[in-house]
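Quick question, first post here. What does this chain look like in 3D?
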Amino acid sequence: MNYEIFGQTVPAVELTLDAGETVFTQSGGMSWQTDGFEMGTNTRGGFLKGLGRAFAGESMFMANYTSMRDGSKIGFASTVPGTIVPVDASRDPLVIQKGAFLCAETTVELNTILTKKAGAGFFGGEGFILQSLGGTGMAFLEVDGDAVVRELAPGEVLKVDTGNVVAFSPSVNYEIETVKGLGNIVLGGEGLFLTKLTGPGKVIVQTMNVAEFAQHIATLIPAKG
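> Answer (accepted):
Ran it through. Tokens below.
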């Protein structure tokens, strides 16, 4: 499989597959394809795995696209202005937030996992369930805005606004801490909680949180009546 990423505002990745190669995405994730694909839909791993993805905010069902001839092309576009990040799952396994997965080769394993601490689950903005990306092959992540990649040294800490975490290595410790000071909480405008990521390992953050962006746009819409 070969790939090429197009666009800068609302990018897309186009995959070129040989006969017999298959990629999967969430239901409804495909944007275009050339002739020569066969589509199948399933829960990918059984009902319980599908149900776990649904709790993580993803589709319960996955769409599989199998190329029936060499050189078939298929495109997957991001849903908001942002960036598409390619990941080699065999070299770079990651824990990813809900909504970050775009598409992958079928040799990639996408599983739901529980956050280790209840505080992270209640207040982390991503719920108790995140997703692990492993196995072998290429996967592609959808990032809101631009992607910023940091390699944390052992014990190095990065504190991130809730909702701006995209992915991190399994070796990175993930927890939630409260913003200190009543005045900061009431007047700071940054919310009550920050995500604390402690190295070693890779961290990917995004420069835009689409939920906060949507809330900002809503405040600019004139009220009716």
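The CA atoms of residues 56 and 102 lie 14 Å apart.
The chain has a mean pLDDT of 84.
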